[in-house]
Known about the structure:
Layout: H1 2-26, H2 34-42, H3 47-82, H4 94-107, H5 115-133, H6 139-164, H7 169-175, H8 184-203, H9 205-211, H10 215-220, H11 225-247, H12 253-265, H13 270-294, H14 303-321
Helix pairs in contact: 1-13, 2-3, 3-8, 3-11, 3-12, 3-13, 4-5, 4-6, 5-11, 8-11, 12-13, 12-14, 13-14
Amino acid sequence: xLLNRIFLTYALILFAYITLFFISLMIGEVxxxxxxxxxxxxxNEDETLSLIVNESRLPRIIMAILIGMLLAxxxxxxxxxxxxxxxDPYIIGIASAATFGAVVAYMFKIPDYYFGIFGFVCCCVxxxxxxxxxxxxxxxxxxIIGIAVSSFLGAITSLCIYFIGEDSFRIVTWLxxxxxxxxxxxxxxxxxxxxxxxxxxxxHKNELNIILSGDEEARNLGVDAEKLKINLLIVSSFAVAFAxxxxxxxxxxxxxxxxxxxxxxxxxxxxxxxxxxTLLGGLFLLLCDTLARTxxxxxxxxxxxxxxxxxxxxxxxxxxxxxxxx
Length: 326
């Protein structure tokens, strides 16, 4: 029965990927047909078509998939570590650190495309600092420290944005999520942390399953649960930091996608859940980005608005439906 559900889930996701991939290539400010798509992909007969498909839409599609995979896989691991259905890498303070970095970039009069770089650096420094401070503390203490420092950073950032005034619109827009600056170089860069994170998570899939049984049971089986959890949270935080650097803040992907997969499969085995979460996360973000750039074209909505629009009701439904996580 479980194998049938797994096979069906993979089949549905694959079909949805293929369908949405071609729809995303076809629609936009300039609508194309399948002949135009194949002409642009496999020939250089029309430079304009090639530019639209190969240099604009295709890297953006792949970028959306990769970032969705990063967010969903990190969210799945974080929920397992905290044994909490509302846990997410952002809860440790990634969002506040990224916002602070964007504000710092603006204060130094640095161009908009550096907002992500500064956000990434602040995310990394913040994460390392939090984990260093709580090195000998429990996971619960780590969470409390993260929330406290995050709130402090958020207060400073809000004060700065308030004094910046109307010019803070550029920062706010970046924070809402945007994939319009996607390029093949960025696709290559984001692929590296994605591959590393997925390999690390999957390599520790058995340990993840063990810590679901509790720290005491893990200790009896020879697993240092606290150390493993810290390492997993560090990798999760860096994964999200890379996503933030290239897309701004995109919420609810890491919260909702793991829930959907677990409910579909009625299974918590990370060897099964992690790959499917990763695939569905990429698909979900691709769907949201496609709608964001086409639903009221030529005006483009921030992708974070779409993920919240779809994610918040789904998460509320799941929170009410599922009383227990483990």
